[in-house]
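ping. complex inputs:
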Amino acid sequence: MDQLSALVLCTTLTPSPARSSSHLLGQQVLDALKEHDVTGEIVRIVDHDVKPGVDFDMGNGDEWPALRRKMLDADILVIATPIWVGHPSSLTQRVIERLDAELSAEDDQGRLLTYGKVAGVAVVGNEDGAHHVSAEVFQALDDVGFSLPAGAVTYWVGEAMQGTDYQDLPETPETTAGTTTTLAANLAHLARVLKANPYPPS
Amino acid sequence: MDQLSALVLCTTLTPSPARSSSHLLGQQVLDALKEHDVTGEIVRIVDHDVKPGVDFDMGNGDEWPALRRKMLDADILVIATPIWVGHPSSLTQRVIERLDAELSAEDDQGRLLTYGKVAGVAVVGNEDGAHHVSAEVFQALDDVGFSLPAGAVTYWVGEAMQGTDYQDLPETPETTAGTTTTLAANLAHLARVLKANPYPPS
Amino acid sequence: MDQLSALVLCTTLTPSPARSSSHLLGQQVLDALKEHDVTGEIVRIVDHDVKPGVDFDMGNGDEWPALRRKMLDADILVIATPIWVGHPSSLTQRVIERLDAELSAEDDQGRLLTYGKVAGVAVVGNEDGAHHVSAEVFQALDDVGFSLPAGAVTYWVGEAMQGTDYQDLPETPETTAGTTTTLAANLAHLARVLKANPYPPS
Amino acid sequence: MDQLSALVLCTTLTPSPARSSSHLLGQQVLDALKEHDVTGEIVRIVDHDVKPGVDFDMGNGDEWPALRRKMLDADILVIATPIWVGHPSSLTQRVIERLDAELSAEDDQGRLLTYGKVAGVAVVGNEDGAHHVSAEVFQALDDVGFSLPAGAVTYWVGEAMQGTDYQDLPETPETTAGTTTTLAANLAHLARVLKANPYPPS
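pong. complex structure:
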């Protein structure tokens, strides 16, 4: 099997080196991808100066262009996001806004540069919101050219209005662990078949 | 204090007399409203033949007109809905579609007939989805003329991917019970002040 | 190229034989799929007695089991839905609820029966709501096992608060027509590569 | 009538002094509020260093505490947001995350400091997304203690996939102008009756 590569963008509000539940789940996805010959890295957006805007480069020290290069080099993009007030984090939406620029970049066959890449989502919160967060991110990433495998999300949330963090659970729940395993298998499979069989010219 | 009235529309997929978690939570809201001199009733949409469509009366035995009369007679409308695949139930959306017709009915001051009525939401699922469901229902009910008090939702969901129903919990969680109490207090307060102080003519 | 098959489920609230904008857009997707050797059919849910519930067969004349067989026979599923009050129609959510049962059906390799099938969405409304509707449907269909190609939606809506229907436009807007063409090409491509390269056993 | 005050938080991605469509619509809401003896101001979040996080003060020059003071001094909060990829802007979500802290602040009667304040939304985009954006913002603001009048949103979007900005239209469409007028009337009315009739102690 060909080696594939993945980029996990973690959109926690917490800068490194502090612990982060969404970072942990994102790392678990990355670990599970290794089983399928996918190497990669995880980056916290909050550690970088990603400027507001919808262009490729907003100037003034904007660090998105360097992250974009990593995204373009990867076969698989995973957004690992916390849930805040039931929504993806503001940094998830920041990434989505920057990816909006991809709608204006095409290869010499008229295809978006994201075509053929696959995407997945990892969502974590104290309680409630994972399905909606994945809906928002699925739609945004599909709109800008990513393909989504079956079961393109792994997640954990606790019971309504409880306060324990994913990273403070005594162990990873089997349900989430199993879902992460499936997500990684499906991401790797779809990325591999799309790499071997690119979308037709537009 | 003036007596107020409430209508709880329960949009479970399960016909009476079978038990239903959303019916239970809707009934708990109704019970909590009684503490504030609000009387009312709970109706399961699935027990009635509410036709698809966006008119006041779709004919052919459509039972919405009778339910609509109850809604127009009430000061407070509560939608008590289950979560399916992260969304409000199809019967919640059925009710929303029928309420869409209210945009074409005005009183002699040019106000929608729903103006001055207040709305709340009760959401229940095995796991995940309550915030999104309330977002969908808030927007729809506000669009068709209802006002929303602070904290206009009560809910319960379990931990990610678990399967116990709200109605099978050994007891009502204190968090949900407290939220139901607040919802009822705020619904009754806002309904009372809006009844005494109607929106201005349009 | 192998012949593929598609099923378009149209979730308009309007029974046949009356005209329907979402039926028109769904038919246009089907026509565009023919260019890629995909045959298929379009079915209006409102013409059938699809019972509320989340089981494979709700009994009492439930027509979902016959529609489900069509879905299982198809390589591609397209949901063609109107927008009501900013949401997918109640019949879209009815279909989603019935598809929820697929989470309990597996082949002899432990994969959902939907695995390997691809899905797309066609959305139409007088004004506003297409992106959100696609988000809701993407998440639901991905959750129950479908894969989504890049650009998995075509849509039309008019300017804010305007009232003309898609089916009454003097001609199909070029933007929507082009998006429909891309949707069909991507659906056919992804369905073909996944049919030749099934997801691994679970 | 008592004088009331309003704060419009504009969450455009474009810093001052450049023109902004969401700023224009937010200003129009402010102008319409003046007719009801409501004074106020509009602030662009992007002009300020509002740090990521969910505390009252994230330190390091965080400018949210000063904005929060304005919010606490106002009777009415309006979020004026652009639509990006179908969602509220990243700066809208940033504001929502900062407002999440309000859940931990109470007056001496056990009520959130936001109780009694009312909220509205102004949404603008090239095309599609206003209803969903208002759903997201309604739910978030209601969750943190704001009340919502009937018709709590004004908006403009163009036809599907078109590119003209609201600020470049030859004139404000009558539909949007009328909706802005209604929003202002309802915000002012609800703020006034809630100021005279506060929610009961918790």
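Residues 174-196 of chain D form the longest helix (23 residues).
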